[in-house]
Amino acid sequence: MAAEIHSSRFRRASERIGRQFVTGVEDFGYAAALLVESLFWVFFGRWWQQPVRLQSMVKEMMEIGVLAIPVLAILAFANGAMMAMQGIYTLRDFGAESQVINGIATSVTREFGVLIAGIVVAGRSGSAIAARIGTMQMAQEIDALRVMGVAPVRYLVSPILVAMLVMLPAMAILSDLMAILGGGVITMLELNIGLGSYFERVLSVLEPADVWQGLSKSVVFGVLITLVATANGFNARGGAEGLGRATTRSVVLCISAIVVADMIFTFFLIL
Amino acid sequence: MNAPAEKLTSAVIEVENLVTYYGEQQVLDDVSLTVNEGEIMVIMGGSGSGKSTLLRYLLGLHQPDSGVVRLFDKDITDLSGSEWMAIRKKMGVSFQGGALFNSMTVGENVCMPLREHTRLDENTMRIMSRMKLEVVNLSGFEDLMPSQLSGGMLKRAALARALIMDPSLLFFDEPSAGLDPVVAADLDNLILNIRDAMQVSIVVVTHELQSAFKIADRITVLDQGRILMVGSVDEVRNSDIPRVRNLLSRTSEEQVVDADEYLRRLTGIVD
């Protein structure tokens, strides 16, 4: 009898793991299909009477990028300043405080500038997009689009994808600049190095490859945020509570996805 | 009130032996029906009878698991993208909750199909949308947002959007649900007027008897996924099929009690 109970418990546990694995694979496939379809509409939509309109792309760019500039600037600046403070404190033991500039320059351009931009976009737009599409799904607006002969992915996902691909690299550059500026202000105050010579040092340390590394990551982040947020929106079910769950899930998954992707990317680029 | 349906011959919708599943559960079982040109077909049934599901298949939102759905003499399973587009342009749908796009004004909502499918200039589109809003007695409301409209107005605005492409096939999902009797009666009159003025075929899905008897040329009674009967208003009214009588007289349905089955359900033991 006891063995029977154990075996059924074991069976249920393994069943659950199996099911979750299958759901995971399904979600991944769904996201991949979304990516392919939205790219298809971007490039070929015009010939299928499904053009991706410039107007809606610009609107998304405003929403995703331009309106996020203030918060991104503040976060990046603060992050650069913190890195400078911690760097100076740590390097003081070795009497190499001024080396902090090298550290800031490379780590910001390769890593933290783009990561901050990604997290800001994931937090702001990852939830907003999932909520918007989820609401539309529940109010039958997606069905209305389809019966009108408008492909929902073309109308809703493609503009977001394009906007992300344009805005995230731009925001990564802005974030780099603000973080480096933040570090510069702290080094100026702590080490009496003028901002002019600070920026000269930064430029002499940086190589194009450093910046490219950050920018290529930003493209990946843009795609990930688009897919995770829209997929969560389309799959939202179950009224207001379901919508809340979908938005929360979207933000958490967006941020996890970009951090994990960042790590994998760095692993392959550096090692 | 009811135009003779016999003189009309060609069918705009033909459904043959449609069988559908929701997961493992069978929703529609061997449903066949035709809707003729110019007639108002009411699909009537209680909650869970499968009438909303049937509508989704008629709209081509799903592919049948088995059986055939033909719109304008074309099997929906083997339509190319451009053929679908041509059919979509001939269809208008008024969804249960209206399904107006919440981010657009009423006027923009009504214009949306024109914007997507035609190259008319802004002025013409505005005039056309005002014409349709006039038809549904909503003139002057085009600059309001959908959230500012009452339930009845939402449905009429949705109807204006459904009419904007001058469709030859109109669908209504529960037109009178959630409306008070006076407003519901107005909407019924509107549906009749539109049929007379525009020569469209109309499919109405509803559970409201009064409304069904008022507008229908023919009624399809759906129950538990099967068609109980198809007939004129009088035929349905005078039907002696017990389940139809139950539906008409609002008698609750007797559940057949099977003692063994009942025990099995309670204990959850499957043998």
Rounded to an integer in angstroms, the radius of gyration calculated over CA atoms of chain A is 23 Å
Of all chain pairs, the largest interface belongs to: A-B, 15 and 24 residues
Residue share in helix of chain B: 25-40%
Q: What is the oligomeric state here? A: heterodimer
As a percent range, the share of helical residues of chain A equals over 70%
Q: What is the C-alpha radius of gyration of chain B, as a whole number of Å?
A: 20 Å
Structural write-up:
The complex is a heterodimer of chains A (271) and B (271). Chain A is mainly alpha-helical and 271 residues long. Helices cover 86% and strands 0% of the residues of chain A. The N and C termini of chain A lie far apart (54 Å). Chain B is an alpha/beta fold and 271 residues long. Helix content of chain B is 38%, strand content 24%. Chain B contains ten helices and ten strands. Chain B has a six-stranded mixed sheet, sandwiched between helices. A four-stranded antiparallel sheet of chain B has the order 2-1-4-5, covered by helices on one side. In chain B, strand 4 (66-71) and strand 5 (74-75) form a beta hairpin. Residues 1-8 of chain B have low confidence and may be disordered. Chains A and B meet through helix 4 and helix 5 of A and helix 2 and helix 3 of B.
